[in-house]
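Project standup — Tuesday

K.O.: blocked on the structure for the chain from last sprint. Re-posting the sequence here as requested.
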Amino acid sequence: MADSNLEPSDAVGQTATPTPLATPERVWLVANGEQAAKLAAHGHQVGNTVIVATGDLRALPSQTMKKILDASEVELAPDLSEDTLWQLDVIRGGHQIPGGGLLMFDAGFDRRMVAIYGHPSTSSLGVLGEQGAQAGAERLQSIAQGYDADGAVILPTFEIITTVASASAGSDGDYSAMTARDVIRPWIETATANDMYVVLDLQSGRSDFLSQAKVYEEFLLLPNVGLALDPEWRLKHHEVHLQQIGTVDAAEINQVVEWLAGLVREHALPQKLLIVHQFRYSMITNRAAIETPPELAILIHMDGQGSMRAKYSTWDALTTMDDAHQFHWGWKNFYDEDSPMATPEQVLELTPNSVFVSFQ
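H.V.: unblocked you, prediction finished:
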């Protein structure tokens, strides 16, 4: 990869003329149509390609990305955005989100994730733990039925409670029980084998989200693993679970955002999902200050339970805040606590569009 001044005379002089059907030896990425026009004729003469990169490279059409992948050399115009280099590395890294693409929900790819939620070792925390990993993957196929009625491509997902809010302080005093990586690994392997996504959910107690997330870094380096933060279970130093509903400030969330975005850039990963659960205003303070860098798709997951009237009210309250446009949105169904549980048709009617639907 080189950064050149893209003078046509230099570009032509350094490239031998291939046969008409040969793969282009060089791709030029330029910032606008004027630069493309200057280079196109010269590039055509030698069988090379000029691509106008006005936005996120990861949103380029698949056939355009293939030209970049097949090229022996890619040269960049000096006035391209600073994100271009790492996005180019993502394209050339070859990893994709299960089902295709490098962006979770954008670039014309209409994706909806349907997840089962819980802990692998118990059925008391959600449907995920009611069966093994492969049976869970198969069960998701029936659970997801109807959620593609609007044309969305369904991405089956395991949302795994990775650190569990606990009634006792534990030896470290954080009221959060950490699940061994060896317990989680088979579920990630099963998800990978079945073209699924995995979300690791943190209930951090008196610990902080970033410290817990780093314990599972080896999994977050995979292209099909994202992260969820559950403020309900984020305690202040004097609080205990079930006596208070927890809360987290945007500043702590942004520590995770910065770290996770850094992993994406450093390891040339496709865009990664970061979920923040919420069913009360107080659970996230200064929500508008949450950073939404292009490395991540930030999603607010409305995970309230109860009657449909109550859930609609919570949804409307959270999604009509002034900052709501910054985020993607998700909905949770509870088998036992909802009365009744929403149908696929009701979820698909929500505004804004729910791109993540989970079942507990």
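K.O.: great, moving the ticket to review. Confidence is low (pLDDT under 50) at residues 1-21. The CA atoms of residues 17 and 61 lie 26 Å apart.
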